[in-house]
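Quick one: co-fold with guanosine-5'-monophosphate.
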Amino acid sequence: MDNCIFCKIIKGEIPCSKVYEDDKVLAFNDINPEAPVHFLVITKKHLESIIDFQNEDYLLINHIIKVINKLAKDMGIDEKGFRIVNNIGKDGGQTVPHVHFHVLGGRHLQWPPG
Ligand code: 5GP
Ligand code: ZN
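Sure, here it is.
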């Protein structure tokens, strides 16, 4: 999508601090980190949220979990633990309408969220 900030990051029109990339997803550090480790895994396909998923889109979740598993180990947050967050829509607090999973770690995270 032309005016989507994450699509622009995928196209290289906006720089990012990349941590991983393949044909299906891109992972990069959040510009406004809420924890010592805070990166986003975004789909290369522009979909606003998981609510727009159809058919083979669901396979992306499998792939995203596999990528997060690898990156959590690479970044050394696998043993102490971390959190995966996927905000959806207005009530979910989603600010960028392009599917992305937050991965937060490196400190103890509070629960429940506000
Ligand atoms: P949401 O609120 O939609 O779940 O998460 C969007 C996230 O994207 C926020 O944590 C925000 O800091 C991050 N973000 C927004 N714009 C940019 C950007 O241009 N670059 C990077 N690296 N992160 C961004
Ligand atoms: Zn997009």
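If it helps, The CA atoms of residues 87 and 93 lie 6 Å apart.
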